[in-house]
Amino acid sequence: MCGFVGYFGPGRDGRDLLGRMTAAIAHRGPDAQGFFATDDAGLGHARLSIVGLGDGQQPMSDASGELTIAFNGEIFNYVELREELQAKGRRFRTASDTEVILHLYDEMGEDCLSLLNGDFAFAIWDARRRRMFLARDRMGVRPLFYTRQGERFYFASEVKALLQVPGVSAEIDPVALDQIFTLWAPIAPRTAFRDISELEPAQLMVVQDGSVSTRPYWSLDYPDGDAPSRHKDEREAAEELRTLLTEATRIRMRADVPVGSYLSGGLDSSITSALAAGMAPGGLRTFSVTFDSAEHDESEFQQEMARALGTQHSAVACREGDIAAVFPDVIRFTERPIIRTAPAPLFKLSGLVREAGLKVVLTGEGADEVFAGYDIFKENRVRRFCARQPGSRIRPHLFRKLYPYLPGLRQQSAEYLASFFGANGHALSDPLYSHRPRLDGTAATKLFFSGDLRASLANYDAADEMVSRLPEAFARWHPLHQAQYLEARFLLPGYILSSQGDRMAMAHGIEGRFPFLDHKLVEFAAGLPPEMKLKGLVEKHILREATKDLLPPSIGKRSKQPYRAPDSASFVGAGASDYVETALSEAEIGASGLFNPKAVAKLHEKCRTRPASGFRDNAAFVGILSTQLWLKTFTGAGSQSSKAA
């Protein structure tokens, strides 16, 4: 796990620029730095040494010197690939997974990606073909950004490295901001920065002869809704799932340093920790975050699971004022505005792991997308039932089964709940039917946009753009699979794995590993019948069946409680900070040109006096504050470059 930078094309950048770019992302690789430069190609690397500690330095060249790679991530099946390559006569000079990629590329070219099981982004300078070859992992775990300046192409693991390039400046992209305030994240390749792009998950890129071309090398796919499934026996499916998950965890325990595990107290991280505990030679270390707020705290379940596994457990408390204290740093590392504070506690958690002396942790992320764990999947099922059975007597009871951790919602009338969930408000044929309540609720935050920003976006609809990115087969999939695709294709890489994942962990030089996102496991789960994943309103049914012997019943049968953190309440009362008052002042809001100063002032006062505000006000508050911090961090708040016009 590391960070890398590079360029390709005529110019005079050389080693000095590579040094500045690499220094900007030194937090990703605090163990070493390395550089490779020719007249028209260069690579820089900041190393977090995990595999091949003594001989895995990068950039790494092959024996001929014609192939040179800079690599971020891990290839978890590198041991098996290495053995296959050696059987073909390939000779290795290191024990690293990096060299395996070089040999595979030399053998297979672009097709080498089909054999890689891992989380990765890399660039290979191919001197023979005079081209730069770049690729990103299938699910979008590791980031890769790029831009052009004149005839030269630049790329890096984080945008802040690209901002070291002469002529590249930070300017907010209004369309990206609209996407964030609708979809929670920009739709790649768009980023928050105008004219800076992100390579999409499961895509490769070739830069050659002054042109840039991209194409997918893998895609997430589901069977047609009326196609018979090969998984007819639930017990056999559960056994196959257990085998795949165990293997995915086993290969992610490969490292020349100790591997720990996050433990939230929920089903997914508990399964991951339980499997890893039996594979950790010196015993497993687990890490959690706790909250003073009972609504968000899961420490009781964390401690129960740690005791059951016998792990060495550590926790970091997220107390009143802590989120506000770290939030400016959080935005510096997310490199984009966000509408929730959830990344902040994870920033503190990765700091705890670093203080404990570890560099690698397993997490349970991905299970909800892969096995239909989110409440939005249950909500979709209930809404579709209600749309078809508007006179059903059980409708109010079904609505109340949703979101049991939100008692205020459960107390509402049937009429309110039907309106809240949009039971009759959208056509069943709408490809975004499952997500319309979320999209509509989030988009309401745009009421705080300035007149100028609204005018610049008058003919744009973020949801329509999402629809335009859907594959042709989408309409043939089962409604549950459609909803799963929307989560896995957009929110997962755009927000969960980025703002909450890679960026918060790598801020402290910590590598997260995700057994549930092993592509073999993902492909298997995609082929399962919907009822094996969401059985009635029981989420992740097949996963529970496959792992029920690993967990205490109180954990194994526990309903999904999504990871959340206090939002606007984090910045008022004891959380109030001078920077919050400044960032949300009418003068600063007016200078940015993005939001309505009077409306923001009223919102701020409302959140001050009513900390338990609803979703719209919480999301708007955090989104506006994070945007103002983004402007200050990357452009200078109030500068002309930040204005929507």
Gist of the model:
By secondary structure, the chain is of the alpha+beta class.
What does this structure look like?
42% of the residues lie in helices and 15% in strands. By secondary structure, it is an alpha+beta fold. A 6-stranded antiparallel sheet has the order 2-3-1-9-8-10. Helix 5 crosses helix 16. The radius of gyration is 24 Å and the shape is globular. Residues 638-645 have low confidence and may be disordered.
Keywords:
645 residues, alpha+beta, six-stranded antiparallel beta sheet, disordered C terminus
Helix tally equals 28
State the total count of DSSP E strands: 17
Write down the overall geometry.
Answer: globular
Largest sheet: 6 strands, antiparallel
Mean pLDDT: 92
Strand content: 5-15%
Alpha carbon gyration radius: 24 Å
Order the strands across the largest sheet as they lie in space: 2-3-1-9-8-10
Structure classification: alpha+beta
Question: Separation of termini?
Answer: 39 Å
Q: What proportion of the residues is helical, as a percent range?
A: 40-55%
What low-confidence regions span 5 or more consecutive residues with pLDDT below 50? 638-645
